[in-house]
Design brief:
Layout (H helix, E strand, L loop, with lengths): L4 E6 L2 E5 L5 E5 L9 H23 L6 E10 L7 E11 L5 H15 L1 H6 L4 E9 L4
Parallel strand pairs: 5-6
Antiparallel strand pairs: 1-2, 2-3, 4-5
Helix pairs in contact: 1-2
Amino acid sequence: MGATTVRWISGKQFVGTDSTNHSLILSSPSEGVGVKPSDLLLLGLASCTAVDVVEILNKKRMPLSSLEITTSGEQDADPPWTFRKIHMKFRVGGDGLTDKAVQQAIELSEGKYCSVAATVKNTAQITTEYEIINSQN
């Protein structure tokens, strides 16, 4: 089971520490010092999926030379500003990548392996798109 700790520094600034003792600075947008807490949800979804996609494509003997995932989220206008739509755009690079392999890796992550997607998809619609880029780019 994962466990995290958030410690208040001052003002609206905090230090978050994960279950493997890695830390990151969090803050409200007005502080401008750390990661916005709601953006952590988008980062968690993207990084969870990234780990899966890299692993799945490696198992298919289609290693990546690059991977970038951009996320955007639409939130309710009123508190608690629940995310209702999250869009993920994957830019993947690597020799011999096929549309079928990339699409399957993304779908497997979202539908089977990514714990963050499994948790979020009951509240927010998750959509994806991908672009295969030439590995020389």
